[in-house]
Design a protein that fits this description.
- The structure is a single chain.
- Helices cover 52% and strands 8% of the residues.
- The protein is built from 30 helices and 16 strands.
């Protein structure tokens, strides 16, 4: 089979793609939070189906790969290399069918080992390619082509900067929510152009050095090919570790292991495809040309160059549009940008002809130096921008950060060269490293759970007990429900609930995603950053309360609760058999209504019900293709999200109507809340999980009490947190006093106002559920300071200016104070749960 033929490339793509997906799946199993939330919780459909089909996909991949080398079986060492591949991997395939290893992966080192091992079959065939083709190629070294290389890198940098600036203009040019003035956009555009050119000139310098070194070796073009492929693998490993794996909160030695394995495998496989695609009759005059062959169909001076660049521009736009809403901390967008960069350079380099070397010599000595000096000059002294006619409306760093949210190509470069990342003070670096060590603690670190009671006495109350209904909606924002936003006209039922309930206007989650946010409703306290200590039961205060008070429990047991609930003999499981990512509040409330209207004979116990619906979760909206019912319009809101809020509001109204009709409402504690918020395009951000921006940590919290308790003192404008739910229920049911500890929540309703004030703190630490990102809420919730220990940077937000707040410049004083306070809390958590600080 000819190496450059379409059937060959298609078969190799299937072969390599299946094994690459196998490696990615194992990587997701290794990372604690993706194992729990993506694999166990079945968050993404294809990920859940993959291990079930893997044994068949393995054989499809193996047959496709073997078919591409069957013509190379001939006497000699190559024959045994191919037959060995078929024999060994066929034997492993039989074992895969019998053992189904992908279905029994655990969250430990074995998953990381499998992630690396699945890269071996593509590398093996790549070695076959190299062994078969390298000796047959005509390796000739052409005259120096520095002019071609210079113009390729320069034009590719300019094209890429212009391409992503155009994508920004098309997608967001008329968007009134983009906090960038015309001057800001001009400044950011110039900055982006400079930074892209500097980056591509760096590539030019590296490739020129490679060519110079290769020219001194016996077979220059072969040496250049080897050096380019090896260098590409190293760069891919470094960039992948810094930009991509950090988005999965994977750092340290495991990150370098998988990044090195992936970078090396990619380099070897592309090298093998490259030599397969090179025509026998054409001499290899440039190792760089050969290395780039699989990445571009354009030959030197080819007329297809412009058409191919147009296709790449369409690809870049499509990737930016398709991945933004469903992305994970810019992971998919950054990966797409890196792919586009490489393809653009390969295409431009393939199109350009050689030019005058003397002119190029002068240019490539002067232009890179001028670009670097210009960038450093403007970065070091932003006032010089005015001299150049560039005047941003706000602090330059804030403008560039905001623009980076929309132009991910610029964001990748800006994140790599930020001063904060490269010049971190030793004490600050030590602080970041502490956060990394105390985040995503692996299961190999044993955390022995111990009882952490909210109240000392759990003797059941003799008073009449209310029913308790906790209705949570995963990812629901404050500003999409009318009790918090008068501009919302699509939640009338919640508006009615708010009128005879307490609306806590300053309500926040303590964790920015479900993994740790949901358990805090039950513990009433901050948790060790592990998913999860086992057994979790001793820490589950709310379950202990409900069991002690002999409630009849109805609970939607999702993957988080399945890992954190103790044995509960009389538990009625709502949504039983329904995949966790398909919990629909309307269906759940209908099921609960059925239980309430047909109680068991003689069972007069009060009801405890808990559910966390997935209607507005980003994965649910993506699965339903962001659909909006015909005729529904939501000006100023994200319509797919708002339409789902409208639907669940109607179902809540029906459920409350049922409670009133059966005389249950006035004897019920009804808590409507969310585990966290969501980003819906603020400064280019979408989704949640890794981040704790203002729109992520704000949550709705509306609590309706029975009439006899409405005399209790409450301050709806005081700070309230998800950790306050359990202490509040303890207090209401007579278990007083509740513990007053920095890691615990507080009762929101008390007999006397002074009781509540004793629990108040000057500031509160919040955190990401899945990454080393921590925040400090200060000034009564008016300020949020955020520390991102994965990307080595800090943020400061004014929380008084809307759902997403307003970023402001980080001062040294605030930085020092906030980091010290966050450090203290992290150390308190480690001490309380007996976790070594330097594990």
């Amino acid at each position: 089979m000819t190496g450059g033929s379409m059937p060959f490339l298609l078969l190799r793509a299937i072969f390599g793609g299946i094994f690459a997906l196998s490696s990615v799946y194992c990587l997701l199993a290794y990372v604690p939070f993706t194992y729990q939330q993506v694999i166990v919780n079945e968050l993404i459909g294809w990920v859940s189906a993959f291990p079930l089909l893997h044994h068949w996909l393995y054989w499809i991949a193996l047959v496709c790969g073997a078919w591409t080398v069957v013509d190379d079986i001939r006497p000699g060492r190559l024959r045994w290399l191919i037959l060995g591949f078929m024999a060994i991997w066929s034997a492993i395939g039989v074992w895969v069918v019998l053992a189904r290893p992908m279905m029994s992966l655990r969250n430990d080192w074995s998953a990381l080992i499998w992630a690396a091992l699945w890269l071996a079959p593509p590398c093996w065939l790549a070695l076959v390619d190299l062994a078969a083709r390298v000796p047959r190629l005509d390796w000739r070294f052409a005259a120096p082509e520095n002019s071609r290389l210079f113009w390729a890198t320069f034009l590719a940098g300019a094209f890429t900067a212009g391409l992503y600036a155009a994508i920004f203009a098309i997608r967001f040019g008329a968007d009134p929510h983009v906090r960038l003035t015309s001057s800001d956009r001009l400044v950011a555009g110039v900055w982006s152009l400079l930074l892209h050119l500097v980056a591509y000139m760096g590539a030019f310098a590296a490739l020129s050095l490679v060519r110079a070194l290769a020219s001194r070796l016996p077979r220059p073009s072969l040496a250049e090919f080897v050096l380019v492929c090896a260098g590409g693998g190293i760069v891919l490993a470094g960039v992948g570790q810094a930009l991509l794996l950090s988005a999965l909160s994977l750092s340290g030695r495991p990150a370098w292991v998988i990044a090195s394995a992936a970078g090396g495998a990619a380099a070897v496989c592309l090298a093998g495809i490259a030599v397969r695609m090179w025509p026998d009759h054409e001499a290899v005059r440039s190792g760089l040309d050969l290395a780039l062959r699989p990445l571009s169909p354009v030959s030197r001076g080819g007329r297809t160059g412009v058409a191919w660049l147009v296709a790449l521009a369409a690809l870049a736009y499509g990737l930016a549009w398709a991945t933004a809403v469903v992305d994970w901390n810019y992971l998919l967008q950054k990966a797409g940008v890196l792919a586009v960069w490489t393809l653009v350079f390969a295409s431009v380099h393939g199109t350009i002809r050689s030019g005058r070397e003397r002119l190029a010599t002068v240019l490539f000595m002067v232009v890179p130096v001028a670009l670097v000096l210009s960038y450093r000059s403007l970065s070091a002294a932003p006032k010089r921008l005015a001299v150049a006619g560039l005047t941003p409306s706000a602090d330059l760093a804030l403008v560039l950060d905001t623009y980076g949210g929309y132009d991910v190509s610029f964001k990748v470069l800006h994140d790599l060269v930020r001063v904060e990342r490269t010049r971190v003070a030793p004490d600050t670096r030590a602080f970041y490293e502490l956060l990394q060590r105390q985040t995503n603690i692996p299961r190999t670190t044993a955390i022995v759970p111990h009882e952490m009671p909210i109240a000392k006495d759990l003797t059941p109350s003799t008073e009449r007990k209310p029913h308790i209904f906790i209705i949570g909606v995963d990812s629901l924002r404050q500003d999409y429900v009318s009790p918090y936003n008068p501009g919302v006209d699509f939640t009338p039922s919640l508006g009615q609930l708010a009128r005879d309930s307490t609306v806590f206007r300053q309500a926040f989650t303590r964790y920015g995603a479900t993994g740790l946010a949901e358990p805090t409703w039950f513990t009433g306290a901050l948790l060790p950053h592990q998913q999860y200590p086992n057994p979790f039961g001793p820490m589950n205060n709310l379950q202990q309360l409900v069991m002690s008070e002999r409630y009849r429990p109805f609970v939607t047991v999702d993957s988080v609760l399945r890992a954190t609930l103790a044995r509960w003999p009389d538990l009625v499981e709502l949504d039983r058999g329904v995949p966790g990512n398909r919990y629909d509040l309307c269906r759940t409330l209908e099921e609960l209504t059925g239980h309430l209207t047909s109680p068991p004979a003689g069972d007069d116990r009060p009801v405890f019900a808990f559910t966390l619906a997935q209607n507005v979760h980003v994965s649910s909206i993506a699965r339903e293709r962001a659909s909006v019912p015909a005729g529904e319009v939501y000006p100023g809101f994200y319509a797919p999200y708002a339409s789902r809020v409208r639907r669940i509001d109607g179902c809540i109204g029906s459920f409350i109507g049922m409670l009133k009709a059966r005389g249950l409402y006035e004897n019920s504690v009804l808590i409507f809340t969310s585990d966290h918020g969501d980003s819906l395009g603020e400064d280019g951000r979408w989704g949640h999980a890794y981040t704790i921006f203002p729109e992520i940590i704000r949550i709705p919290l509306v609590i309706h009490l029975p009439r006899r308790w409405q005399r209790l003192a409450v301050d709806p404008d005081a700070l309230a947190f998800s950790t306050d739910v359990a202490p509040t229920l303890f207090y209401l049911l007579g278990h007083r006093p509740t513990v007053n500890h920095p890691l615990f929540g507080r009762p929101l309703f008390t007999e006397r106002p002074g009781e509540r004030r004793a629990y108040l703190r000057d500031d509160y630490v919040v955190a990401s559920s899945y990454g080393p990102v921590y925040g400090l809420l200060r000034d009564g919730g008016r300020s949020l300071y955020v520390v991102d220990a994965a990307s080595f940077r800090d943020y400061d937000f004014d929380m008084t200016t809307g759902p997403a707040g307003t970023p402001r410049r980080v001062s040294d004083t605030v930085r020092s104070e906030a980091q010290a306070r966050i450090r203290k809390t992290v150390e308190e958590i480690a001490s309380y749960y007996r976790i070594p600080l330097n594990r």
